[in-house]
Design goal:
The complex is a heterodimer of chains A (248) and B (232). With 248 residues, chain A is mainly alpha-helical. Chain A is 77% helix and 0% strand. Chain A has seven helices and no strands. In chain A, helix 2 packs antiparallel against helix 3, helix 2 crosses helix 7 and helix 3 runs antiparallel to helix 4. Chain A is globular. Chain B has one domain. Chain B is globular. In chain B, helix 1 crosses helix 5, helix 3 packs antiparallel against helix 5 and helix 3 crosses helix 8. The chains are: A mainly alpha (248), B mainly alpha (232). At the A-B interface, helix 4 and helix 5 of A face helix 7, helix 8 and helix 9 of B.
Chain lengths: 248, 232
């Protein structure tokens, strides 16, 4: 069903279908590279394979939050104030929250296997946790209700505030740690020697996850578009239906 | 603007005076928030149950109690605005949103500063904290700089959360991650002032510069961002 002339009738187009096939193919290839072709690490054994998911996940998360900030800035500054930018910001933030969660979970599993603990109070880990909570708050603000324009302005300002908040938190956590704890365990973990195929698998993961992000963000933007159109149209439709019931 | 236009500072002070007058008449801070802060400090003592530990972690507890109490104060300060559409009335009256921002922030700062003094006094009485004269001066400067930052940032997010009524649960989720730098900076500075855990008084001053930086950033940002946030 097409809700109105401007909204899409579905979320797929030939271009996104092609992209979707490419995403599936590259994720299958990544699984093969990560689990089969690439060698075990001398020190970490198979644990190192978590990296092929963990690193691309946090990469996607950073990319998503940056895209949210850029889209919000465009929405707030552009003359026509197209709601499309607001929906891109929202779609991107949702995907960012998902992938930051994936990287926190995979990271703490890796930490448990390698360091023997799920969590260390390292500056990077702590700021990542803050990133997660901050954008959960952002998504909550998007659901506050009101008109689409109110949502867009509120969440747009909030997304720009987050850009300011994250470096401040990261900076203060870093000074906090540096004064209270000697070199953190995380530094030992970075002492990994990557051979050619491992490095290739890692970069391939970044490419595959980037494609996945693009595919997800396009579709999510379109479903949000449909949701907005439904919210606009739904009320009119409901009024017409009730009138018909009443025989007016 | 008419020829009778008043300066932004005058308007800010008028808004602040209005908020403090409401508080003075209702006595919510004295009758409800201050006792709440005090009971939090007592509960910390129950939970930790060790005088040595209490003395060591007193600075952190003072600031945690401040943050929790601040949530209540901010909700209160915006509840009086949204109750009868007072904030909209201020906007319709043509008042610059940045003047409302600074006014409400100043009123919030005054209330928070009073609460923090009470919490430090509670720590001295209940947790056996001791300070030198220089330490006491450092505590006062820490309270002042941290309060300015908290007042600004609390007003930004309080304004946002109050935009939709019945969604007050959102405020802690939005605000607590943002004020983490204040908690870190103020706790370390207070630790130095209390000389707890072998800290020296002189170690606190760099942390106060972090608090000052936070205050300046959110003061500037708030004066720009507050308008779009409350404009419905």
């Amino acid at each position: 069903m097409q809700l109105d002339k401007t909204s899409p009738s579905g979320t797929g187009t030939p271009a996104t279908r092609t992209l979707g096939v490419l995403v599936i193919a590259s994720l299958i290839a990544l699984s093969l590279f990560g689990l089969v072709f690439s060698a075990e690490d001398v020190v970490q054994g198979s644990t190192v394979r978590i990296m092929y998911v963990h690193v691309p996940s946090i990469w996607v998360a950073y990319m998503a939050f940056a895209f949210t900030a850029i889209s919000s800035a465009v929405y707030l500054t552009a003359k026509n104030r197209s709601l499309g930018w607001d929906r891109f910001a929202g779609a991107s933030a949702e995907i960012g929250v998902l992938f930051v969660a994936i990287s926190l979970v995979t990271g703490s599993l890796w930490g448990r296997l390698t360091w023997g603990t799920y969590w260390v109070w390292d500056a990077r880990l702590t700021s990542t946790a803050f990133l997660f909570i901050t954008y959960i708050g952002y998504l909550a603000v998007r659901r506050l209700g009101g008109t689409h324009r109110q949502r867009a302005r509120r969440s747009g300002v909030l997304a720009l505030l987050a850009v300011l908040e994250i470096p401040l938190v990261h900076f203060s956590v870093r000074v906090w740690r540096s004064l209270h704890q000697e070199a953190s365990v995380a530094d030992k973990g970075t002492d990994v020697e990557l051979d050619g195929l491992m490095l290739f698998s890692l970069f391939f993961g970044l490419v595959a996850f980037t494609l996945l992000f693009v595919w997800l963000v396009i579709h999510r933007q379109r479903t949000l578009w449909l949701e907005d159109a439904y919210a606009d149209k739904g009320l009119d439709a409901a009024i017409v239906a009730r009138r018909e019931e009443a025989g007016v | 603007m008419s020829t009778h236009s008043v300066s932004r500072i005058t308007v800010s002070l008028a808004v602040a005076r209005k908020d403090l007058a409401i508080e003075w008449n209702s006595k919510i801070l004295v009758n409800q928030v201050a006792p709440f802060s005090a009971i939090v400090m007592v509960l910390f003592a129950f939970a930790l149950d060790n005088e040595g530990i209490l003395q060591r972690v007193a600075p952190g507890l003072v600031w945690l109690a401040t943050l929790f109490s601040m949530l209540v104060v901010i909700q209160r300060t915006f509840a009086v605005e949204s109750a009868d559409g007072a904030l909209d009335a201020l906007r319709v009256a043509g008042i610059d949103p940045s003047a409302i921002f600074f006014g409400k922030a100043i009123a919030l700062m005054v209330q928070l500063f009073a609460l923090e003094l009470l919490l430090v006094a509670t720590a001295v009485v209940l947790y056996g904290v001791e300070m030198s004269a220089l330490g006491f001066l450092e505590v006062l400067v820490t309270l002042a700089t941290a309060t300015i930052g908290l007042g600004f940032v609390g007003t930004i997010y309080g304004g946002l959360a109050s935009a939709v009524r019945g969604r007050e649960t959102l405020l802690p989720l939005l605000l607590l991650p943002v004020v983490a730098p204040v908690l870190i900076g103020a706790t370390r500075a207070t630790e130095a002032a209390f000389e707890s855990g072998g800290a020296k008084v002189s170690e606190g001053w760099p942390w106060i510069s972090l608090l000052l930086m936070f205050a300046v950033i959110f003061g500037v940002v708030g004066s720009v961002a507050f308008g779009p946030l409350i404009d419905e």
